[in-house]
Amino acid sequence: MPDEHLPVYQIQDFHAQEQKESYFYLRSFAAHLREHQFIQRPHKHNFYILLYISKGHGTHTIDFEAYPVQANTMFFLAPGQVHSWQLSDDTDGYIIFFTSAYFRVEFPHQKLNRFPFFHAPYHMPLLLLHPPGDEAILEVIRPMQREHEAQKPMVEDVIRDYLDILLILLRRRYQEQNPSGQIPAPLLSQVQALEQLIDQHYKAHLPVRFYADKLHVTAKQLNDTCRRAINKTVNELIQERVLLEARRLLVHSHLTVSEVAARLGYFDNAYFFRFFKKHTGQTPEQFRNAQH
User: Fold this and answer.
1) What is the pLDDT of residues 234-261, one digit of tens each?
2) Per-residue pLDDT tens for 263-276?
3) The predicted structure's pLDDT at residue 3
4) Which residue segment(s) compose the domain that 113 sits in?
5) Closest listed residue to residue 235, CA positions, set 266, 262, 198
6) Do 161 and 198 fall into the same domain?
7) Does residue 175 sit within a domain?
8) Beta strand pairing status for 58-62 and 22-28?
9) Would you call 202 exposed, middle or buried from its count of C-beta atoms within 10 A (0-12, 13-18, 19+)?
10) Residue 1 included in any domain
11) 278: exposed, middle or buried (Cβ count in 10 Å: 0-12, 13-18, 19+)
């Protein structure tokens, strides 16, 4: 049976160098897997992850979506996502962790959500690289690893600059591979602000007007923005967030269906049952049983 709560790992759990609230970690992926056996089960992180696969195969599951693991693939994870993997013994590459605070020390006015691959609900969390054309990306990771291991004076300044360059190069390649999936910056900014509010308040089942007021627009304007940006309404975004948390709790906790419903703000079990089945095609119990 799953634990009552998903583990949420912090970057210091991986012996990252401490620098107040700013952390960074970079290892070969094979070494990382050997040293941290506790990460095999589904879990969350409170930091950003870049995972480059140089060889090996398997499956990487991110919030109930299974993605194939193969050579020359880069995976992206933002804080709070649930993931796990099943990998062949020869899997290797590089894994990079960093916190938002670490990045902002050097780039206080830049937002990590400007990189589409960290915007999981609307963008694929992976990128297929094609050596030798993408050798430039490895030419940033390798010296960044050397800097991290050598720990020379001003190492953190050098690493942050490398990290920014790496993210920019990855964004270029990502947008080349996904030209039709780009959301205009002004629309994306408002949708992301809305998502942050939904993440804070989705259990309260507040009306669209609440979110519109917080963003200083009308409910109609907010719905119009969502439709133009992602072809969804505000209510659909709220429902998707509730369903994601319901799935997480059903699969990764000991809570009964009634307790899951209550935790999500549904005190009428029958209403939660109908809501879940309408949007997933399964009852909560059927969904839970299918995952085990």
Assistant:
1) 999 999 999 999 999 998 888 999 999 9
2) 999 999 999 999 99
3) 44
4) 8-181
5) 198
6) no
7) yes
8) unpaired
9) buried
10) no
11) exposed
